[in-house]
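FIELD: query
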Amino acid sequence: MNKQKLAAIAAFFLAIYIGVPWAIAASGRTDFYYTLTSVALLSIASAGVWLTFYIGRINIGQGAYALAGGYVSAILMTQYGLSFWTTLPVAGIFCAVLAVLIGLPILRLRGVYFAMVTLVLTEVMRLTALALPITQGAKGITSIPLPGELSLFGITLIPDFATLENPKIGFYWMAVTFMVFAYAVLWRIVNSRLGHLCRSLQQNEELASSIGVNTAYLRVIAYSISSFLGGIAGASFIAISQSIYPSSFQVTDSVNFMLNCFLGGLGYVFGPMLGTLMLYFGWDLLFTTGEYQLLIYASLLIALMLALPNGVLSLLDRKKAQP
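FIELD: result
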């Protein structure tokens, strides 16, 4: 890794861990902690969607796994007394296993067929949450405790959030740390042998299969990792809001996760992160336009995708290509 990349990584870490908290403290706008925490968690779920795009599948069902992960964590905390830090990996693993069961039959489909099947998953999960007694139906699950202390060998790694004077900054640091780990793993996958094999599925599955690539195995692995990230994001969201309802994640959320990938750039690992940031703040900035907010928002998205079909990050390649 060259010095320029190392400097960029160092600047990124300084910005998110030191620069952002300092700027928020200077402005007194502590509400930005919640906003940026949401962006970080949404980008984690979007990263999972990006991975399914990487194997040539259009995933519009990530909201289902975020909802499932949130409910698993909420149920384990409120009904079984487990700590948030214990329920977090359990929620992710539950969603990964669920994705394997769902993915085995539907990952055989391609293009719009797979996309349409995943589109209904979020609504199915919402209706399931409404029907099951353990999820408490439309009432949802409330009074979810804040994350407790996380310690290792008697050393406190993370304090009890209930003891923090301002838990918002605690949630912010937690979310951006999860985001950093998620994208580091995603980058490592893409640049590994597994990633190169996954790319072969995107280009030509028949050709990949003819040279001995286990395409069915790769599809399921990628989809389960994608859903794991969705479950982690959902579980983290309910820790922040301290409640979860069947409507906490809807079909529109699943569509937005997909749009984040398109806008940032499907050809770039960090595309979903940038896309999430732009869409989230773009929607908020257009709030002053009132009844025209949705019209302007949709028009700008269409214009951006027409002007930059490979995402905003493709501007970097255009700049490099200039003499």
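FIELD: remark
The chain has one domain: 3-321.
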